């Protein structure tokens, strides 16, 4: 895809936050946009302003049976899908030992399995077109695990592994895949979209619990990145002739990932002799 050509976007979880901002930016520049929302079909704050170029369909990311219907209606509305933005998701702050399946399985259903199913539904369309761009929302937590975010990071690590393999399966079909790794954006991620489930389990975990228990209060409204600029960045990625596979967004994400790469590199070098010790020449 090239800049200046009208595109059709399908953006999941676009009721608010970064998905909403991406939809608005794409509409403002003249593209067609299909959004999935938790509200009823057609209900979206941008619907009245863009009656001809916006379609909103209800979809709960856990409702895999409805995915095919939504994708079919998107194609019926605009004839094609050029950009899929898998944005639907939420966060979980929780200690690994204290968190049961009732908390972490729904997180995977939304953040990972829902993303996989809508991608599977869209790929045949892009394959037929011999063009398309799948943009999957990860996080710098998809590159770096931190205390209290083990399960959230696990969902995003899964997104990154899936996306990297997928990118190598579909590149020859004219389909690009990009993973976006946002830093802290001043959206509702540290507010309503964040499930906090901190249990200290006594004194053993008290230091960790104290660090993460007030995450929302410390972060919400104070994040360093502007959500209104997020959509512009995604449009730039969608327009690129050779888009990146991995794109951190925000100086905070970029710096954190570089630091982690340096630490991994140092550790690999430090333990290289033991790593090589299992090699058996043919």
From TrEMBL:
Signal peptide: none annotated. One of its GO terms (molecular function) is oxidoreductase activity. CDD domains: 17beta-HSD-like_SDR_c (cd05374). Pfam families: adh_short. Keywords: Oxidoreductase, Plasmid. It comes from the Bacteria. Belongs to the short-chain dehydrogenases/reductases (SDR) family. This is Short-chain dehydrogenase. It comes from Salipiger abyssi. The lineage of its organism: Bacteria, Pseudomonadati, Pseudomonadota, Alphaproteobacteria, Rhodobacterales.
């Amino acid at each position: 895809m090239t800049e200046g050509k009208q595109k059709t976007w399908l953006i999941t979880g676009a009721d608010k936050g970064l998905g909403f901002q991406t939809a608005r930016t794409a509409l403002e520049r003249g593209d067609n946009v299909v959004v999935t929302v938790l509200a009823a079909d057609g209900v979206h704050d941008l619907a009245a302003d863009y009656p001809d170029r916006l379609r909103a369909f209800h979809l709960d990311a856990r409702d895999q049976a409805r995915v095919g219907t939504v994708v079919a209606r998107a194609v019926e509305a605009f004839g094609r899908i050029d950009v899929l933005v898998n944005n639907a998701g939420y966060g979980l702050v929780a200690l690994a030992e204290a968190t049961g399946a009732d908390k972490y399985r729904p997180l995977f259903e939304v953040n990972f399995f829902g993303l996989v199913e809508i991608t599977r539904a869209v790929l045949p369309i892009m394959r037929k077109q011999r063009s398309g761009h799948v943009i999957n929302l990860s996080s710098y937590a998809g590159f770096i695990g931190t205390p209290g975010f083990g399960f959230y990071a696990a969902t995003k690590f899964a997104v990154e592994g899936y996306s990297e393999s997928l990118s190598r399966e579909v590149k020859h079909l004219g389909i690009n895949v990009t993973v976006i790794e946002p830093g802290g954006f001043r959206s509702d991620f540290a507010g309503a979209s964040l499930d906090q489930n901190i249990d200290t389990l006594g004194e053993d975990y008290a230091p960790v619990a104290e660090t993460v228990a007030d995450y929302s209060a410390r972060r919400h409204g104070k994040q360093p990145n502007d959500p209104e600029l997020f959509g512009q960045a995604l449009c730039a990625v969608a327009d690129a002739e050779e888009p990146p596979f991995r794109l951190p967004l925000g100086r905070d994400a970029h710096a954190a990932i570089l630091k982690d790469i340096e630490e991994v590199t140092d550790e690999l070098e430090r333990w290289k002799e033991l790593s090589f010790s299992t090699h058996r020449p043919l």
